[in-house]
Recover the amino acids of this structure.
């Protein structure tokens, strides 16, 4: 289910060497551009992102304005997607909720990426004892399943937007860490790294300026797919009562708040929009990630 | 090989220790204890203090962890504070349904994921490829609780069909035996297994498709084709074997999920499994239960990855562990 | 295995019951004679823990099952007054300190053994025993000598915490004090006069005691030989043996509990042979009711809309014994001001909450007594009807006059602001938090809401007192004594930090009189103090709503006790027995 991570491909992805006229990113972009699925994903994500950014200006109503006199009204001209149990405008909450849900997704992945990349780089670059220690810590975190640990952490931190990000982020870094470590192990022996080492560059410089950029492609793919996973995880946490808290709207808590026999039967405007935006946005991110993978891996396309 | 296994098993010990210590600290950081949710004026606050003392809930944390560790080393998982029964009994009671659901959903994953993945790869860029790929993406993009409820609405309750039961593992009070009993479980299994398996099917399908496409481009497949072997032979004899090898890893990695149950799916379908127990124990801070469960999850995760590695070696003669 | 028993048992029971309710042979005028057969499917939303032992269980879900399997000495009638259940008569002494019960004749446990006063004494003695692992000891502290013993225990516990005494030594002393009580006072406190007659005596008259004695009785011949501390491990804790209308058959973990009728039940042999308590998903339970998968469920106001046109479903709604409130911490410099609390009561549109969130199935609360309790009397209370204008006047009177740029009131440069904690889990309560926030914003009070998971919140509030204000509910019992919630010397009472000498006096006085008509004026006066002081801003009391398949289930006589109280009289027409 949601806990099952989308597994990154095991085969190593394309690794651009720093030569050739066209940069590797240029090549990839050209390839990406010709992939209609990926472009669709990109456009949809851009649409959601822009909507989220513009929320204060385009949202028709105040998403927090409660008015019991108009609670649970069906869509109308005044409220295009109807109102919820407190009389709040569903469309406005959806627009603002996108802000929260997408931010949670991106920041959570940012957190897990930062931890994963730093830990993985250090482990892969230095090897030996340091590698061993870091990888054992990774093992420890990895052997505890997501939801039990996430819920416990959420109880420690109390449910809120920031803590939802932190919880998802803190538990998602192990995959990235392993991936980055693997990349570093292969790249460490390459000529350009040896050259940098012999020219007296510092470790930090070698890690961040020389090796990391070359490992960016697979990290980018994992990160993109991670955003999709995080949006779904946020919804799951909300369903279990540990996600983003009311009155702040997130797509996850809007959908889980709407789940009841009555709403399913009588008030479709409370669950269809929230369900649809989650579905479409996650779908778009997945398409985007998939397209990125194809674009960055030259062996995949003739 | 034997030495390798022993070494791996030995490596587990410190990791298990670390994992239980970590989870212990996290659980203890969460405010509250098994008695703090009892907000009932008729429950005696003085007695509750007594019980806290009895269960050593106010003891220093290192002492509490040490007590737990001692108990585990004696092979005792402890007694639940809220269920007032031994944790091992609680787990055993719920293992059957959880395994049944886990295996059913895993079967679903393999029965659909692999053939669809192959089909999509072999018929690359055909409508079939697009359809299965589309479905796979859809499966990956839907929150589990939402999909579960849609299934209930569509196939069980409130639907004109009412084809399948909406909850439970057995028909309540039907007292079936033999084949009827199995059929009954089967009918109850379909919806939750689908809800639980959908992401897996989608994931595996994508995975098999990619790995199949890759194999089909390898030299030896090209050679086989050039030698004039028919497409079928090439695909099923040479390519498939190689493409499916990584699948073993997936199976191994799924082992803990199989036993760990699925909190959301089990909650929605009132499935009497480990996942719901985990959730209840979490909300109630039932420490002995939580610690035992996490120990079990951790152990299984590691065993799973060991098995995956061994299985890999078994099918791929190039891999040797020593 | 089951013994077909005396034909005349029902008649005997009815004759014996000077305290029984309306006779059980009046029938619905438009129904035919009851027939036996069929299966009744009840439902609950969460799995019981399987602790089906009345003295040990902690969950409401376990108590659903216990309620069908066990009986207490007393139960309630349709006016919610105490009447006999296992007893055939009871009597309160002139000094109001002793209650004497005489058991019914020929009462049998489900295993066929006779019920005697030994069982009754055993039940209550077990709960006082130092090794007892349940949480109900305090209910019996009024018995002769018990409070003294419990205070000693408590002191020893505190000494352990302060490291003044070792756990072993303390345990020894606790055992000594128990032995002392057993030797000196227990015969007086719980006096087994003969097999049928038992008397309980308290140190002082204590009105709630009748309710506490109504507790389910457990069999001595089953548990008697077990150490009290190990009772939880006894098989009969999982597979109980009681006296009730239904016998326990099995609990399929986390799925359903199966019960079969007790042919010897003293109120009459139930018509329905099998009862199954199913665990259902709260979100879709209503559809299961409509589909006929279950015959009974607790519903909520919003789901009524789905059933209102369904002729097969009967809704039974009653005022509830619980209510929701916003508690305040009197250590908070702003909230300790009575004018501010009163202003909040005026500013929060509680009427609208009841109307919109509860669809009218509830009551606005203005003091502690919920409407189901006989001590409830709203007529003398200030109703704090929604009046933002008045709220603003009160705030101005309290010195909150200036508005800052955001529209919030300030005084001496400080903003009128506090944080409201609320627990997750109750949808209506969760929805009320943003409403309160919006209502208070309208009069210039800034509320920061913060949701916490239940156990975390209760620790923050009740153990650590690190809160400004919080949302929570009380679920009360029949006796109106509010001592455990509003006497500042106990855990729940001290949480607000509110103290009031007159309130304490009245609470204590209320327990010393036994007759409701004597107690009521005391509680009415007390409720007025709360209504004025507002240690809580009282919110609402949500009605209980039960939904029953009335096409299948006949013989219902729903009243204040709800729909299920006479389950042994329920029957299912042959056409619906399947």
């Amino acid at each position: 289910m949601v806990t099952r991570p989308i597994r990154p491909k095991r085969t190593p992805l394309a690794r651009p060497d720093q030569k050739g006229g066209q940069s590797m990113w240029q090549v990839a972009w050209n390839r990406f551009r010709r992939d209609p699925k990926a472009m669709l994903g990109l456009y949809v994500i851009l649409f959601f992102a822009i909507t989220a950014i513009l929320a204060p200006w385009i949202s028709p109503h105040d998403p927090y304005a409660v008015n019991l006199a108009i609670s649970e009204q069906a869509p109308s001209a005044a409220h295009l997607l109807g109102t919820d149990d407190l009389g709040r405008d569903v469309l406005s909450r959806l627009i603002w909720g996108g802000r929260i849900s997408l931010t949670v997704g991106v920041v959570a992945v940012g957190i897990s990426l930062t931890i994963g990349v730093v830990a993985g780089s250090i482990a892969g670059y230095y090897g030996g004892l340091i590698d061993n220690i870091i990888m054992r810590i990774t093992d420890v975190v990895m052997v505890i399943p997501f939801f039990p640990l996430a819920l416990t952490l959420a109880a420690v931190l109390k449910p809120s937007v920031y803590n939802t990000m932190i919880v998802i982020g803190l538990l998602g870094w192990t995959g990235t860490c392993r991936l980055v470590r693997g990349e570093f192990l292969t790249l460490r022996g390459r000529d350009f790294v040896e050259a940098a080492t012999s020219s007296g560059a510092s470790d930090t410089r070698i890690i961040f300026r020389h090796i990391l950029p070359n490992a960016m492609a697979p990290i980018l793919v994992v990160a993109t797919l991670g955003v999709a996973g995080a949006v779904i995880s946020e919804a799951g946490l909300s369903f279990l009562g540990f996600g983003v808290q009311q009155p702040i709207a997130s797509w996850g808590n809007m959908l889980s708040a709407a789940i009841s026999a009555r709403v399913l039967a009588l008030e479709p405007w409370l669950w269809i929009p929230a369900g649809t935006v989650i579905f479409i946005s996650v779908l778009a991110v997945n398409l985007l990630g998939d397209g990125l993978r194809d674009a960055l891996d030259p062996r995949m396309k003739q | 090989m034997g030495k390798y296994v022993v070494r791996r098993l030995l490596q587990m010990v410190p990791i298990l220790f670390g994992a239980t210590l970590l989870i212990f600290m996290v659980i203890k950081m969460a405010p509250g204890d098994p008695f703090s949710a009892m907000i009932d004026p008729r429950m005696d606050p003085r007695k509750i203090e007594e019980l806290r003392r009895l269960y050593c809930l106010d003891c220093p944390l290192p002492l509490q962890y040490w007590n737990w560790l001692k108990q585990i080393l004696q092979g005792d998982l402890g007694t639940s504070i809220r269920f007032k029964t031994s944790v091992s009994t609680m787990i055993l009671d719920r293992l059957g349904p959880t395994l049944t659901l886990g295996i059913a959903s895993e079967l679903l994953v393999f029965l659909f994921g692999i053939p669809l993945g192959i089909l999509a790869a072999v018929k690359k860029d055909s409508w079939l490829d697009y359809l299965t790929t589309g479905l796979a993406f859809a499966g990956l993009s839907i929150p589990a609780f939402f999909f579960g409820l849609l299934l209930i609405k569509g196939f069980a309750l409130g639907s004109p069909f009412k084809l399948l039961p909406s909850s439970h593992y057995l028909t309540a009070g039907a007292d079936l035996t033999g084949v009827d009993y199995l059929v009954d479980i089967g009918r109850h299994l379909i919806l939750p297994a689908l809800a639980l398996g959908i992401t897996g099917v989608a994931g595996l399908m994508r995975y098999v498709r990619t790995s199949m496409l890759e194999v089909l481009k390898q030299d030896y497949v090209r050679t086989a084709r050039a030698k004039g072997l028919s497409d079928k032979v090439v695909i099923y004899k040479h390519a498939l074997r190689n493409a499916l090898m990584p699948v073993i890893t997936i199976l191994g990695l799924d082992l803990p999920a199989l036993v760990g149950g699925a909190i959301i799916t089990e909650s929605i379908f009132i499935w009497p499994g480990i996942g719901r127990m985990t959730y209840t124990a979490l909300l109630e801070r039932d420490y002995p239960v939580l610690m035992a469960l996490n120990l079990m999850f951790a152990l299984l995760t590691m065993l799973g990855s060991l098995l995956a590695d061994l299985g890999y070696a078994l099918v791929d003669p190039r891999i040797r562990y020593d | 295995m089951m013994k077909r028993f005396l034909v005349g048992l029902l008649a005997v029971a009815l004759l014996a019951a000077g305290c029984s309710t309306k006779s059980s042979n009046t029938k619905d005028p438009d129904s035919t004679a009851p027939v036996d057969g069929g299966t009744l499917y009840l439902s609950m939303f969460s799995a019981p823990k399987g602790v089906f032992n009345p003295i040990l269980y902690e969950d409401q879900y376990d108590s659903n099952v216990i309620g069908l399997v066990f009986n207490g000495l007393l139960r309630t009638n349709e006016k919610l007054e105490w009447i006999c259940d296992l007893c055939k008569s009871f009597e309160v002494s002139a000094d109001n300190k002793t209650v004497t019960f005489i058991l019914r004749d020929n009462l049998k446990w489900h295993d066929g053994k006779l019920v005697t006063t030994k069982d009754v004494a055993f039940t209550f003695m077990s709960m006082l025993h130092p090794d007892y692992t349940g949480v109900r000891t305090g209910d019996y502290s009024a018995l002769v000598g018990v409070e003294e013993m419990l205070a000693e225990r408590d002191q020893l516990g505190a000494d352990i915490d302060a490291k003044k005494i070792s756990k072993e030594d303390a345990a020894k002393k606790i055992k000594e004090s128990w032995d002392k009580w057993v030797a000196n006072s227990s015969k007086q406190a719980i006096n087994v006069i003969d097999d049928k007659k038992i008397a309980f005596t308290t140190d002082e008259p204590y009105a709630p005691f009748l309710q506490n004695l109504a507790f389910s009785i457990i069999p001595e011949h089953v548990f008697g030989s077990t150490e009290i501390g190990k009772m939880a491990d006894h098989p009969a804790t999982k597979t109980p043996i009681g006296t009730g209308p239904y016998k326990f058959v099995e609990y399929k973990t986390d799925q359903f509990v199966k019960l079969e009728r007790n042919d010897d039940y003293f109120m009459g042999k139930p018509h329905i042979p099998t009862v199954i308590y199913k665990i259902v998903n709260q979100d879709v339970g209503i559809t299961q009711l409509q589909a006929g998968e279950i015959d009974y469920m607790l519903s909520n106001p919003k789901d009524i809309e789905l059933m209102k046109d369904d002729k097969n479903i009967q809704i039974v709604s009653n005022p509830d014994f619980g209510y929701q409130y916003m508690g305040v911490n009197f250590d908070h410099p702003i909230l300790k001001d009575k004018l501010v609390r009163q202003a909040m009561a005026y500013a929060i549109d509680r009427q609208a909450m009841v109307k919109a969130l509860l669809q009218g199935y509830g009551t606005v609360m203005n003091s502690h007594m919920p409407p189901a309790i006989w001590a409830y009397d709203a007529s003398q209370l200030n109703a704090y009807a929604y009046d933002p204008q008045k709220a603003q006047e009160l705030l101005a009177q309290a010195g909150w006059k200036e508005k800052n740029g955001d529209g919030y009131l300030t005084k001496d440069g400080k903003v009128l602001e506090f944080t409201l904690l609320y627990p997750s889990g109750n949808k209506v309560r969760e929805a009320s938090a943003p409403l309160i926030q919006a209502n208070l914003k309208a009069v210039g009070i800034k509320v920061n809401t913060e949701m916490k998971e239940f156990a975390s919140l209760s620790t923050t509030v009740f153990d650590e007192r690190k809160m400004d204000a919080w949302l929570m509910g009380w679920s009360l019992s029949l006796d109106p004594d509010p001592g455990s919630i509003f006497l500042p010397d106990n855990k729940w009472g001290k949480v607000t930090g509110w103290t009031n000498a007159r309130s304490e006096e009245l609470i204590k006085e209320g327990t010393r009189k036994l007759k409701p008509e004597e107690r009521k004026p005391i509680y009415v006066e007390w409720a007025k103090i709360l209504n004025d002081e507002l240690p809580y801003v009282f919110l609402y009391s949500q009605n209980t709503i039960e939904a029953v398949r009335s096409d299948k289930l006949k013989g219902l006589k729903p009243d204040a006790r709800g729909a299920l109280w006479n389950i042994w009289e329920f029957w299912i027409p042959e056409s619906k027995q399947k």
In short: Chain B has a mean pLDDT of 84. Residues 72 and 109 of chain B are 35 Å apart (CA to CA). The first helix of chain B runs from residue 2 to 29.
